[in-house]
Amino acid sequence: MIRFNDSMKYCQIKTEAILAPFFSAAINFVYAPTCLFCDQEVNPVGHNFCESCRSKLKPVHSLECARCGAPVGPYTDLTRGCGQCHRETFAFDGVIRLGVYDGQMRLASLRAKASGGGSLARGLADLLVYQKRAKFDEQDFDLVIPVPEHWTRRFLHPHYAAETVSRQIARRLHVPWSREILLKSRRTPKQATSPTPLRRQQQQGSFAVSRTRQISGKTILLVDDILTTGSTAHAAARTLKDAGATYVIVAVIAVSPLRK
Ligand SMILES: [Zn+2]
Ligand SMILES: [Zn+2]
After folding, report:
1. What residues contact residue 167 under an 8 Å CB cut-off, 6+ apart?
2. Where would a tag sit more exposed on the chain, N or C end, judged by fewer CB atoms within 10 A?
3. How far is residue 7's CA from residue 37's CA, in Å, rounded to a whole number?
């Protein structure tokens, strides 16, 4: 039975959906949209970056390894991954990324990570989906999950880029999103200078799944902002697979140009 309150709510949602494009057009008329990276006026086409910034954020080499996202040359044999990853074991099944953590992309990623970087983080997520739509469409994702951080870090730094990026990707792909399923159960040291074997050791067993039933047999899109050695994404994907996930693809804004 539909109650009066429910039907009022339904009318309100319906009205909002009908009026949304008009509001959006009116806002664009009053406030011309500007590029998220240089403030130049833009005509949004699925993302808010001007052509100049979009080309600056593009990696020099357009080809990439589907297994780890590393940039590769045109004649690289990718049967077992690229030169950077063929000796590595990953629990995830592939990487979709926007760029390489270098030059302007490094600058954009740092700004998106910093306090107040929410709109740039969402913009980079929009650009990632816009540029890599075909790759995202190859899978039928059931759920989008951010690589979580420990609650103590969240307490100190409320803006968390991986979460913002993942939520925006989920919105664009129309896939459910949750930050409650995969949790960081133990704090791990900052890893920028640790060698890969040590990073793997530090990350091992540092994630936990709270709702196994929701990921059993599912295809998961696991999202982080940057992929450095892949140790964190590997440990998170391992935890998801141990809890029953069938397939885990990692999506990031950028991958490190050289991983050791
Ligand atoms: Zn620009
Ligand atoms: Zn690779």
Report:
1. 144, 146, 177
2. N
3. 43
Nearest one of 185, 199, 189 to 229, comparing CA atoms: 199
Number of domains in the chain: 1
Query: How many angstroms is it from 240 CA to the middle of ligand 1?
Result: 38
Which spans in 77-177 are helix H?
A: 103-113, 118-131, 133-137, 151-156, 161-173
Q: What is the pLDDT of residues 112-136, one digit of tens each?
A: 999 999 999 999 999 999 999 999 9
Q: Which domain holds residue 143?
A: 61-255
Which CATH number goes with the domain that contains 136?
A: 3.40.50.2020
Dist CA 162 CA 160 (whole Å):
6
Which ligand gives the minimal distance to the CA of 64? Answer: 2
- Of residues 49 and 28, the one with the higher pLDDT is 49
Q: Which ligand is nearest to the CA of 108?
A: 1
Q: How far apart are CA 104 and CA 153, in angstroms?
A: 27
What's the pLDDT tens digit per position in 215-236? 999 999 999 999 998 999 999 9
- Looking at all shown ligands, the one closest to residue 57's CA atom is 1
- Give the pLDDT of residue 11: 47
Residue 152 lies in a domain: yes
- For residue 154, tell me if it sits in a domain: yes
Question: 54 alpha carbon to ligand 2 midpoint, in Å?
Answer: 24
Computed on alpha carbons and rounded to an integer, the radius of gyration of the chain in Å comes to 20
In this structure, what are the phi and psi dihedrals at residue 29, rounded to the nearest 5 degrees? -70, -40
In a domain, 203, yes or no: yes
Task: State in Å: Cα 34 to ligand 1 middle.
Answer: 8
Of 114, 124, 164, the residue nearest 144 (C-alpha): 164
User: For 142-183, what is each residue's pLDDT tens digit?
Assistant: 999 999 988 877 777 778 999 999 999 999 999 999 999 999
